[in-house]
Amino acid sequence: MLEPFFKNYLNQSTTKYDAQVRKINQFEKKLQSLSDDQLRQRVQDIKRHLQAGKSENEVIDETFAIVREATWRVLKIRHFDVQLIGGLVLNEGKIAEMKTGEGKTIVALLPTFLNALYGKGVHVVTVNEYLARRDAEEVGQVHRFLGLTVGLIQENMSVEERQENYNCDVVYVTNNELGFDYLRDNLAITKDEVVQRPLFYCVIDEVDSILIDEARTPLIISGSSQVTTQKYIQTATLANVLQKNVHYTVDEKNQIVKLLDEGTVFCEQALETTHLYDPPEPWASYILNSLKAKELFKRNTHYIVNDENEVIIVDEFTGRTMLGRRWSGGLHQAVEAKENLPIQDENQTIASITYQNLFLLYDKLSGMTGTAKTEELEFENIYKLKVVPIPTHREVRRKDFPDLIYKNQYLKWQAVANECVEMNRLGRPVLIGTTTIEKSELLAALLQEYGVNYRLLNARPENVESESEIVAQAGCQGAITISTNMAGRGTDIALGGNLKLVLNAKLKTVIQNLHLADINKELDEGEKDPLVCKFTPFFRSLNEQEIKKPEFLSNFIDYLTKGLKLENKILTEFHDLYIKVFDELNTEWQEKKVVVSQLGGLHVIGTERHESRRIDNQLRGRSGRQGDPGSSRFFLSLDDKLLRLFGGEQIMNMMKNIGLQDDTPIQSPILNQSLDSAQKKVEAYHFEGRKQLFEYDQALTMQRNGIYSERKRVLEKTSLRDWTIEYGERSLSDIFLTLQQRNKSELGDFYAFKMQELLGLPYQINENSKVETLNEIWKQQFQISYTLKEIQLEAIEPGIMRELERSFLLQQIDFCWKEHLQRIAALRDSIRWRAYAQRDPLTDYKKESYNIFVKMLARIRHQVIYLLLRSKIAIEF
């Protein structure tokens, strides 16, 4: 039951929207009598209204009503009133906190459609490609029905495909692809390579996962720096010899490794060096990375090793593998050396941006998630986003039982297995959340010993492929599902199972063989699954040439998800059969839902508290969706990381003092409060880290925006002559400012040297010339030199000067910016030591990074002019 104060809070936060919801409902009644074409005509009228600069408030109620009516006509889903409130909150540029199963995907249709009518493009950002593709195909039908275009960005798309999709009215894209496309656009050599439009409006699904969890690590595009890999191999061997607390210490809480004096001496002797921090031959960073790889980064927890002998990072929050992502600073190479794998070259940063600063580029930003209130302060401080809790459509009936804490891991896992066996005996579906791949497989092996059937969902590729089917069946009677994490899975666990997803997954698995003989053989040899056997005649009737066509599978899936009727007799027959079988089985499926509900619904088991309360809440939230019954309980042990780092000894003493047996768990509300307090401390620590990353990147952001704006103008301008002339004059002014700081006796020689260095021509200065007039004389001389060079080159190759200007500008901007990023990274690594001198590192960093930036801009100007005035065309005879 919702507490009265919580009800009051929800009422206060949504009362302002009640009148607007009533107006939308009134519009809905008027729209129901309109034809599809008349509905689309209303959309065009609203579009003209908005693009003419008229107020959005005049049309928002009608627009939301149109989307609700279109969603009913296309998907047979009608927005609840609370979903309308969620849409209004998103349209205001806020975060809508909606519980799992409340239909966030449908809610996003409302504000995205309204903002897409401005014609500037709207982005819906999701955490993985599966969700982006699913949403674009399924709910994107509503946008298409109303006359909008829908784009989808996927990993392996070409530049042309990306341009076409980004130019659509509504674009579904993952946060990674969005960020890397932004960086690649700002490395483009020609305007034709740019894929994105200016960033206008964005709705982020699982906003806490993207803006909080993934905000710790910046997006980086890098190139090989050709650093030798031998040092990683040497220090990996050395790390295995070094002893913890003898040669080094490990701060697991702060993820820091420190060498002790004895360890430093030992390493210097082993590596035959006099100083580990010697700049020409540094060893310290290699040793520390090898020790981190040994102590803090565990296989099947933080990473896996795939069949190609590559180290693949596992996202600790979503439990998914992060293909293409690498740890920076040599850490990834250290892990590769630890695992005796081929060591890839260390990378040098070419372009980077944090998620914080990427999403702040949008004119309007909003997001939705089931768990945002715990991070409300961070959302407001960094992103200026307010969190608005949206009431559930039906009252939450889930029971969250107090945690059980056991003395050790063995007792805990035994208790978890016993709980699974008991629930399985009752017939209740169970979802078990584990924190690592290793622990998920440990529990799987334990349940196998107990003779209990289960499904396993973790980051291993063979399990990820069947993800949608596993989640779809997790609510079936007696089902036991083990998962590394449930954040961002994108599929609700329906009690009794999800018939459509199960049916589609089974048929897709069969058809993907693309070999008719194999399908027939599989069915003939005893494939007894009724969902597949009902389609045996259909599969046997398929023409093998038809089935091997590249477009067959995509068309096949379109039939499953959209019910399209293309001009293909075989597929049309299949669609009719599919609908018939679905209707036959649906009644039986509904009966199963009633049975599971009567048994108590889905029971969620947590096997460890996460560092963030949000992740625990996401796991709990998988049960009790849309008013369904359910329950949850966490099983913990004193060996768990969170308890070990925050109060494990005190709890152990408590167990001894009250005289509990070793196999007796502690169950106490006070203990739960202590755990919540520990999680808050960890959250505060990580918040401070993200805040520091954001503050340091803010200084770089202003510089990045300046460089990228300059680059964009270079790409868009047809002629850069005036720009280049300005570069030359500013370069002369730089020399003039330096000249003013020198003694008058040195002016002649210094001027002659600098002018020859920049312009490539010998100059002489009249010693009687006034310093104040020199700068104007130099500018005239430069313009003459530049015009002569232009005439010389254009006489040989017309248009060559304009091409050289663009080429040298882009080349020098990119080269100097890459060098600048290296200098800034070195500054950021060293600046923290200023705190020991009672100075604010951040203030010093901002000042010094600005000075480095100004010098970089001058270097770009000088080098562009230097290269242009020395350009020659080789003529072959």
TrEMBL record:
SUPFAM superfamilies: Helical scaffold and wing domains of SecA, P-loop containing nucleoside triphosphate hydrolases, Pre-protein crosslinking domain of SecA. Belongs to the SecA family. It catalyses: ATP + H2O + cellular proteinSide 1 = ADP + phosphate + cellular proteinSide 2. The lineage of its organism: Eukaryota, Haptista, Haptophyta, Prymnesiophyceae, Isochrysidales. It is an enzyme of class 7 (translocase). Pfam families: P-loop_SecA (PF21090), SecA_DEAD (PF07517), SecA_PP_bind (PF01043), SecA_SW (PF07516). Residues 85-256 form the Helicase ATP-binding domain. Has a central role in coupling the hydrolysis of ATP to the transfer of proteins across the thylakoid membrane. Its main location: membrane. CDD domains: DEXDc_SecA, SF2_C_secA. It is a peripheral membrane protein. Its EC number is 7.4.2.8. GO terms for biological process: intracellular protein transmembrane transport; protein import; protein targeting. InterPro entries: Helicase_ATP-bd, P-loop_NTPase, SecA, SecA_CS, SecA_DEAD, SecA_motor_DEAD, SecA_preprotein_X-link_dom, SecA_SF2_C. It comes from Isochrysis galbana (Marine planktonic alga). This is Protein translocase subunit SecA. ATP binds at residues 83, 101-105, 492. Residues 1-667 form the SecA family profile domain. One of its GO terms (cellular component) is chloroplast thylakoid membrane. NCBIfam families: PRK12904.1 (NF009538), secA (TIGR00963). Signal peptide: none annotated. Keywords: ATP-binding, Chloroplast, Membrane, Nucleotide-binding, Plastid, Protein transport, Thylakoid, Translocase, Translocation, Transport. GO terms for molecular function: ATP binding; protein-exporting ATPase activity. It is found in: Membrane; Plastid, Chloroplast stroma; Plastid, Chloroplast thylakoid membrane. It comes from the Eukaryota.
